[in-house]
Amino acid sequence: MEHILNKIEKLALTHDAISPQTIREKNIKLGLRNEDGTGVIVGITSKGEVLGYEKIANEDGSGYSVRPADGKLYYCGYDVSNLVREIHREKRFGYEEIVFLLLTGELPVKENLERLRQALYKRRHLTRAERSILLEESENDNLMYALHSVVSHLSRCDKNPDSSIMKDASLQCFNLIAKMPTIVAYVYHAMRFRKGSDLMFIRPVPNLSMAENFLYMLKGEKPDSYEAYLFDMAMMLHAEHGGGNNSTFTVRTVSSSGANTYMAICSGIASLSGHLHGGANEAVMAMMKDIQYNVRDWNDAEEIRSYLIKILEGKAGDRSGKIYGMGHAVYTLSDPRAVIFREYAEEYARMKGALEEFKLLDTVADIARKLLKKKKGKAICANVDFYSGFIYKLMGIPDELFTPIFAMSRVTGWSAHRIEQIVQNKIIRPGYLSSLRKSSKYIPLHKREKGARVLTQM
Questions:
Q1: Which of 69, 145, 188, 341 could make an S-S bridge to 54, C-beta 3.0–4.6 Å?
Q2: Is 362 part of the annotated catalytic residue set?
Q3: Any catalytic annotation for residue 241?
Q4: Does 277 participate in catalysis according to the annotation?
Q5: Mutual angle of helices 384-394 and 336-352, in 10-degree steps
Q6: Rounded to the nearest 5 degrees, what angle is found at the Cα of 72, between the Cα atoms of 68 and 74?
Q7: pTM surpassing 0.70?
Q8: Which of 238, 241, 328, 417 is catalytic?
Q9: Catalytic: which of 88, 125, 153, 277?
Q10: 414-457, pLDDT tens digit by residue?
Q11: In whole angstroms, what is the distance from residue 310 CA to residue 316 CA?
Q12: Please, what are the domains in the chain?
């Protein structure tokens, strides 16, 4: 078997690698991205809009150029930063309102918001069959693997899981939004049970908000109001991020094939489990722990800078050469979600007596931004993952829950895009160029010589 694996690796490197020259000549959009960093337009959506550049008309009338701009994120046309701040200014929990907005495209009146809340709260309990599936399918210490497995098997509890009728698909999405926090909390407790802890399945409380209820099911006690609003903020900011982010695009692609709701949402979970899309907040915390240990004076910017250079050179940290939580595919000067997270993080750190740790985190972000701009020649900002893990840590939330929390919040955006894709009803099928110059002629097995054929690439 080792021989076969080595052969696969060798031939993959020979046949599958593409030269930068070919990419330029054929105008190939690797990663569905344009040369200037903007995304290739492959669809249209009313759900989310992500802006990190602005278009400037060329003086000679030849078209437009793009330049970095402060990041903006819109949900159904509403600026998310304003939504979060205004809802919390009214002393209300907002995630449920975001659910209504993303699924309907409108902000709810008071009566409809209350109806939605009660419908969500009624559906967040797991049936006996669903709890059995969870215990059967969550036998994995990686909670994202367990979450994927559990959600895929929930179709067994649906009398008509493959229905493509809009009302059925919408109800399936709605039920998953309601149940996901319960599933995440229970999968975590099941994992702890397998490691020797007592099994703790805490039933949801009817009148608690989504944020309050998750923290209650996780810790066994009702959170104080500040922490509950803080977690509600995180859920709102993670709920949606346009159709082009990897997990949402995956949900739309799978939905476009006619796959059912459970398979489509599972594809989003699978995408989010990848280290290039989800899990960066956990990596940030691991990186900061290493920096705290190796940097003697947390107030010495030069010592911090020297250590970050070592990290970039692959000589420190996890030797990956990456400063986690920095940079984004769209945002350039700032990530609007990170801006809000940072504000809350500083305030919360002051309350928790962790201001020194926050200042180190903030200094790392500032120095890393400058180092990366010099290295890559473009604007780099801290992304949403840079500060979110710090807040979760201060809340006492275990690292292994960081990405599942992202998933349970983003399921609302995934659901909204799935429904929109069903309406648009067009299978997603981009084109790929062949890397081979010509077709190959078949050679009978007895006439093939070892190493005789070498594919000629473009």
A1: 69
A2: no
A3: no
A4: yes
A5: 20
A6: 145
A7: yes
A8: 328
A9: 277
A10: 999 999 999 999 999 988 887 777 788 889 988 887 654 544 44
A11: 5
A12: 1-28+433-458 (no CATH), 73-275+408-424 (1.10.580.10), 280-394 (1.10.230.10)
